[in-house]
Amino acid sequence: xxxxxxxxxxxxxxxxxxxxxxxxxxxxxxxxxxxxxxxxxxxxxxxxxxxxxxxxxxxxxxxxxxxxxxxxxxxxxxxxxxxxxxxxxxxxxxxxxxxxxxxxxxxxxxxxxxxxxxxxxxxxxxxxxxxxxxxxxxxxxxxxxxxxxxxxxxxxxxxxxxxxxxxxxxxxxxxxxxxxxxxxxxxxxxxxxxxxxxxxxxxxxxxxxxxxxxxxxxxxxxxxxxxxxxxxxxxxxxxxxxxxxxxxxxxxxxxxxxxxxxxxxxxxxxxxxxxxxxxxxxxxxxxxxxxxxxx
Amino acid sequence: xxxxxxxxxxxxxxxxxxxxxxxxxxxxxxxxxxxxxxxxxxxxxxxxxxxxxxxxxxxxxxxxxxxxxxxxxxxxxxxxxxxxxxxxxxxxxxxxxxxxxxxxxxxxxxxxxxxxxxxxxxxxxxxxxxxxxxxxxxxxxxxxxxxxxxxxxxxxxxxxxxxxxxxxxxxxxxxxxxxxxxxxxxxxxxxxxxxxxxxxxxxxxxxxxxxxxxxxxxxxxxxxxxxxxxxxxxxxxxxxxxxxxxxxxxxxxxxxxxxxxxxxxxxxxxxxxxxxxxxxxxxxxxxxxxxxxxx
Lengths: 295, 295
Prior knowledge:
2 copies of one chain form a homodimer.
Chain A: E1 2-3, H1 6-26, E2 33-39, H2 43-59, E3 62-68, H3 74-86, E4 92-95, H4 105-111, H5 123-130, H6 139-150, E5 159-163, H7 170-176, E6 187-191, H8 198-202, E7 207-210, E8 228-231, E9 235-238, E10 246-249, H9 254-260, E11 263-264, H10 271-292
Parallel strand pairs in A: 1-11, 2-3, 2-4, 5-6, 5-7, 7-8, 8-11
Antiparallel strand pairs in A: 9-10
Helix pairs in contact in A: 1-10, 2-10, 6-10
């Protein structure tokens, strides 16, 4: 069994990016600049955005954090987004979700210039991905593809089963694994809450990507020998014996499934750390594209 | 066995549209206007575009056919598209494919205003479809959904197997059948040229959508009793005994598979006739959306 170590891989990627940024500086080029918009002061959101800003600093990106009160109006938020679209100093930006109720998240999403949409959530980018065009791939799926690529996990002709059809993981993964190229060329089955007899399906899988958020959902009796397991579930489970009062766990019964798997992502330390690394990668790609078009 | 009669269903839809157009006229409203751009004079393309124009006449739409020589430059074609985008009299338009070699089809596709893209091929519309937003669904997949809907074929919790991953049929169908709602909520498996042991997969299917273009590919031993068959393959097979010198056939061994199927589309007369009806439907939707925004 080989551990798909996301912590190490994401550190490798960050170092590679830092090196590129260093070269940009030495060549007198402008370095990538990521902006993050945070509405309100939700604890988890603050933590996520904080990690993203810190990651930018680590690789030498410029970063800008725009904090808006939770009472901000939709019009004001849209104005902020238009300003970021128009600001030539900014290569890419994200709007941290969730947004407060007075704001239509879909409207906000659609207002982001697709060329600065480093989260890859804009329909134009999502459609380009589904139509095999060059685009931004959302960070979590991009992180999974990168793990498969760097660990040289064969995907061609394999049967990949995706559990969960969310817009940010399940649906894009089901599309990406069936595209031409590597990683890709898999036969892909997308399963969800209406799927009957999921065990009969997971038992046929060479690769399983699970993104349910149900701790211990995938048990050893549901998988074949030598299966590849990508666990995207991240759930906090209350545990008074832990210093933080909780522990983090995925969708997979790691202890038992890992005995059968050929490759498996741990949780934490698997897909999670890859996400921020891929956001940085997308920002670097945005910078490169913009500089090619003279910006 | 129930025949999914696309000829009858498409006629029903055209009559419904004609009635709506009649009401528009009586209310003094502007009727839908579809334009088609045809480059060159390829026989098959002429036939397709001709059928579309004729279908517009039949339901009372206005139509405009723009014919450009096969020597047209990319710049000239793009200008034509910008003119159509800007022309408030036009509700929707299509660019008949294939295009000559000197023209980058992707560039042309991206130039179409998504709000007039009644073929549903623009990435913004494709992405909206994949993200469950309101959009234009490409005509062939839209036709299949409509057949399933009108014949009340249950899709929820069923296992749909899609054969072929083309941008215009296989990929969108694999997305649409797994979306929430009806038709949808299927467990979906997308298969293609790299799929191993396709028979083991089709034998698990409650619904099979095949879009390969290989006559007789799907045989009776590959399907279960009561399977639902959607045959999108359309191949001309040379046959001197026929008046036209050929006959049209699908991917399915109809004679034998139909004995096991609960529902099946004939070829011709199944999915084919639905395509033009759904193009008209998309044009009507475009007109409605535009009139709601005061155009």
